[in-house]
Amino acid sequence: MSNVFSFTGTVGRDAEVRTTPNGQTVLNVTVANNIGFGDRQQTIWVRVALWGKRAEGQLQNYLKKGQQVFVSGELSQREYQANDGTTRTSLELNANIIDLLGKRNEQGSVAQQQQQSTPAQQNYPANDSYDDVPF
What are the DSSP E strand ranges found in the chain? Predict the structure, then answer.
């Protein structure tokens, strides 16, 4: 692949999996990427497609609105006519990699499970009980 585009972003809408008429499975998700800063910040929306066996797994259950992701693949640009007659441009990425970043934003999230699996903090006596330490 000569055209590789990689970025991190936020899932804008829950992922959808469908099967094409010729039997291929495709996972579609839209990812937002913020560029710039301050009053010059813009959001770029990229339509991401993951094809084949990788689209058939459980990834759909984790690509929910608000999830942070790393995406890499081949970028293309498509022009289309909007309902109001204007020509618009869409960025589309055929993904090779979709990795989850950070925590999930719903009940049963990865972060909550990690907190539950770590031992509770022990309560230690206040420092005033250590006044007789010889050093």
Answer: 5-11, 16-19, 25-35, 42-51, 68-81, 87-101
Instruction: Give the CA distances from residue 51 to residues 38, 47, 57, 69, in Å, rounded to whole numbers and listed in that order.
Output: 36, 13, 11, 17
Task: Sketch the domain layout of the chain as residue ranges.
Answer: 5-116
Domain formed by 5-116, architecture: Beta Barrel (2.40)
DSSP string, 83-105: TTS-EEEEEEEEEEEEEEES--S
* C-alpha span between 111 and 115 (Å, rounded): 6
Q: Which tokens in the block code for residue 98?
A: 């979709």
Alpha helices by DSSP H, listed for 1-135, are 53-56, 110-117
Residues 83-115 pLDDT 10s: 999 998 899 999 999 999 987 655 434 443 444
